[in-house]
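If you are new to this repository, start here. Below is one unmodified record pulled from the training split, so you can see the exact layout before writing a loader.
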Amino acid sequence: MTYFQYKKYIAAALAEVSGEYAAYEAEKATCHLFGLDRRALSLAMREEAPDKIKEAENIIARRKSGEPLAYILGNADFFGLNLYVTAACLTPRADTEVIVERALDFLGGRSANVLDICTGSGCIALAIAENSRADVLGLDISPDALDIARKNAEKCGLAGKVRFEMCDALSAEFEGRAEKYDLIVSNPPYIPTGDIAALSAEVHCEPMLALDGGEDGLIFYRRFIEILPHKLKEGGAIIFEIGYDQENALRALCACAGLPCEIFRDYGGNVRGAVIKP
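And here is the target side for that same chain:
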């Protein structure tokens, strides 16, 4: 088989599980199989490829079982960075990149210190650090996720600009920390507990700790809106990722706290985030 035929074979096999993303995932899988980047694969498309059919079928079988491609390949692309990914953290998603865009717009070209809560793989923290003059602290409750985040900082050459610490962001210990920040960002768990069972097999492969937002999905936002404004420097801002159906709830929580709330959408037109500037 040629490289092109491998890619075509994988794309056809993944169509039922990956839909419109099958061709993209097939390209990623083919590059992974043969240790090529996209440009090298493109140049070699018509050449005969080494026999990797068993490895290709293994990837296809795991993907059809619902396992995210990033976990199968061990990496994912996010905002121009290629990051290590395991089942210890959420898969970085393209929709989350708008959170980084909003953060960079707010920071401009100035020096700043940024806090990323529920950092997971470190994708948001690292993308902000790579594209700004900010120093970033990422917090997470999961030691396994923090291990991945630290490896990603080393991989991306950002260990000098980003550090990671274990911390329960809902705890009194976190509330009592005295540090203040120019910007606080977070993609916290926001799925209502009762909705998790109905999620796709792919999502069920991801850590529940990073998904479960409590009975109404708002446990983190409720707590953050209470305490995070006190952790901002003058002129600072908070940027959350939120669920597509949580706009009204976020507006209500902010209104009760006397905080302005700007809701923004991702490039698919879905509600994706909130900006709060006390």
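Two things worth knowing about this chain: The chain has a mean pLDDT of 97. The beta strands are 75-78, 81-84, 111-117, 133-140, 162-166, 181-186, 232-241, 262-265, 271-276.
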